[in-house]
Specification:
There is one protein chain. This protein is an alpha/beta fold and about 350 residues long. It folds into 2 domains: about 60 residues, Transferase, Pyrimidine Nucleoside Phosphorylase, Chain C (Transferase, Pyrimidine Nucleoside Phosphorylase, Chain A, domain 3), CATH 1.20.970; about 260 residues, Nucleoside phosphorylase/phosphoribosyltransferase catalytic domain (Pyrimidine Nucleoside Phosphorylase, Chain A, domain 2), CATH 3.40.1030.10. About 50% of the residues lie in helices and about 10% in strands. It contains 15 helices and 7 strands. A 5-stranded mixed β-sheet has the order 1-4-5-6-7, with helices on one face. Strands 2-3 form a two-stranded parallel sheet. The longest helix has 16 residues. The radius of gyration is 19 Å and the shape is globular. It starts with a helix and ends with a helix.
Length: about 350
C-alpha cells in the first residue's frame, strides 16, 4: 500500500485515481493519518476538484465500515450536502417530518453542524428528540412512526478521525458530498440538494453507478441546496436530462426570503414548530415545495406540474391538519423512552 504522504502528493498534482482515493480513506478511517495529513489531503483535493472517481473510491471504504440499519424498502431520505453558505433554516429536516406524516417512510440521515450554524441533529435535539444509536431501536422507530433519524457518527464510527479536522478547517470538503450517499439504511431513492451545478453533474454519474435512478438531484435557485421558492431550480433524475423548475409555475410568488434565514438550533427548532402550528410564511412554502418533490420520487415524470401541485396540496393538508406536528411529538415520546 502506498503511504499517505505520497497520496497527498498525487492529490496535490490533481492525479488521484479511484484506487488511490480508497487507499487514502483506508489510512484516514483506520486512524493511521495525522490531523495534519488529513487536513492537507482534504484541502488539496477540494482545491483541485473532486470527481466521480474520488467519490466512488471513498464510498468503497466508507460502506465497509458503516453500521447499517434495517428500514422498509420504500424508505427515502431528504439529506442534502449542505455547504451552500446560505445560513438557511433546516428545510430538509422539516420536510422529512411532513413526508413521514404524509405516508412515505423517511430514513433520515444527518449530522450536527460542521460547516453551518445548525445541522439536522442539532435541530432535532433542540426539538426534544433524542439521537438513538442502536440499529434495532431505529428499525422499530421507523416501523412504528414511519420515520427514524440516523445520526451519522453512530453509523460511521471511523468519522471520529475527521470530525475535529473538518471543524477546524471550516470549509466544505469531499465529506459534504459523501454524506447523502452514506445512508445507513442503504435507501435507493432520495431527494438530495447539492451546493453547485458541478456537484450535481458528479452526483448524476455516481448515482447511476450506485443504482439510484429513482432519486432527484437538486441545485436550487440562487445557489441553495434545496428546491428554492425563488430563482431557477436545476433538477435532475440520474441519467435523464436536467430540467429547470420555477416555484412560480405552481403559484408560489412574492415571499419574504429573509424568513428563510436560520439561527441557532433553538431558533430553528422554534421556526419548525411555528410553521407546523399555522404560521404561513416563506419557510412554510419552501417546506411544502420540497415535500411535493420528495413525494414525487416514485413518479415517472417528476416535472408533471399536475403531480407537483397535487403533492403540494397533500403536503399542505399534512401540515395544516396537525399531522406533521404529531410526527414530531411521536418522535419525542418514542426516543425519550430510551
Amino acid at each position: 500500500m502506498t503511504n499517505i504522504k505520497s497520496i497527498i502528493e498525487h492529490a496535490y498534482h490533481g492525479n488521484l485515481s479511484t484506487e488511490l482515493t480508497s487507499e487514502a480513506f483506508e489510512f484516514i478511517m483506520s486512524g493511521e493519518a495525522t490531523d495534519g495529513q488529513i487536513g492537507a489531503f482534504l484541502v488539496v483535493l477540494q482545491k483541485n476538484g473532486i470527481n466521480k472517481d474520488h467519490i466512488i473510491g471513498a464510498l468503497k471504504v466508507m460502506h465497509n465500515k458503516m453500521i447499517e440499519v434495517n428500514v422498509p424498502k420504500d424508505s427515502i431520505d431528504t439529506c442534502g450536502t449542505g455547504g451552500d453558505g446560505s445560513g438557511s433554516l433546516n428545510v430538509s429536516t422539516a420536510t422529512s417530518f411532513v413526508v413521514a406524516a404524509a405516508g412515505t417512510p423517511i430514513a433520515k440521515h444527518g449530522n450536527k453542524a460542521l460547516t453551518s450554524n445548525c445541522g439536522s441533529a442539532d435541530v432535532l435535539e433542540a426539538l426534544g428528540i433524542k439521537l438513538l444509536s442502536n440499529p434495532a431501536d431505529l428499525t422499530k422507530c421507523i416501523n412504528e412512526l414511519n420515520m427514524c433519524f440516523m445520526y451519522a457518527p453512530n453509523h460511521h464510527p471511523a468519522m471520529k478521525y475527521v470530525g475535529k479536522v473538518r471543524q477546524e478547517i471550516g470549509i466544505r470538503t469531499i465529506f459534504n458530498m459523501l454524506g447523502p450517499l452514506l445512508n445507513p439504511g442503504n435507501i435507493k431513492s432520495q431527494l438530495v440538494g447539492v451546493y453547485s451545478a458541478e456537484v450535481q453533474l458528479i452526483y448524476n454519474d455516481v448515482m447511476l453507478e450506485l443504482g439510484k435512478e429513482n432519486s432527484t438531484i437538486v441545485y436550487g435557485g440562487d445557489g441553495m441546496d434545496e428546491i428554492n421558492i425563488t430563482g431557477d431550480n436545476k433538477i435532475q433524475r440520474p441519467g435523464k436530462q436536467m430540467e429547470v423548475f420555477k416555484a412560480s409555475s405552481i403559484g408560489i410568488n412574492d415571499l419574504n426570503l429573509n424568513e428563510l434565514n436560520g439561527g441557532d438550533s433553538h431558533y430553528n427548532a422554534n421556526r419548525i414548530k411555528e410553521i407546523f402550528t399555522n404560521k404561513k410564511d416563506a419557510f412554510y412554502e419552501i417546506v411544502l415545495l420540497n415535500t411535493a418533490f420528495a413525494l414525487s420520487l416514485t413518479k415517472t415524470d417528476i416535472f408533471d406540474l399536475d403531480i407537483i401541485k397535487e403533492n403540494y396540496l397533500i403536503a399542505k393538508h399534512t401540515i395544516d391538519s396537525g399531522k406533521a406536528l404529531k410526527t414530531i411529538n411521536n418522535m419525542i415520546d418514542f426516543t425519550q423512552s430510551y
